[in-house]
Amino acid sequence: MADVNLRTGPDVEFPSVDVIPEGEPVYIEGCLRDESWCDVSWDGGRGWVFSEYLAVEYDGQMVPLIDVGLVEFRIAYVDFV
Questions:
Q1: pLDDT (tens digit, 9 = 90+) per residue, 28-68?
Q2: Which residues contact 22 (CB under 8 A, 6 or more apart)?
């Protein structure tokens, strides 16, 4: 993985409001239905992260979220308005 931009919306066209260092834990509020972007909380802030940069603990190890899927972790689908 790598440091990742926390953005104001679910696209690289939205400005970055912070950079989350690699390995920092975040809380996933939910993800778009196509699972491309996730709404996350981190360090008192909230924004959007491209889902391919997120990992979850699964069977004792960190694995990319996209490899496991949202349903396995009961992560909600959210809309961006």
A1: 999 999 999 999 999 999 999 999 999 988 888 988 888 88
A2: 1, 2, 3, 4
User: Which sign does the torsion angle of CA 46, 23, 73, 53 carry?
Assistant: positive
CA dist 62 → 23, 33, 39, 46, 54 (Å):
10, 23, 19, 22, 10
Q: Which two tokens stand for residue 21?
A: 């260092």
Burial of 47 (0-12, 13-18, 19+ CB in 10 A): buried
What is the pLDDT at residue 18?
96
- The helix, strand and coil proportions of the chain, stated in percent and rounded to the nearest 5, come to 10, 45, 45
Question: What is the C-alpha separation between 39 and 34, in angstroms, rounded?
Answer: 13
Any idea which residue has 């490899």 for tokens?
67
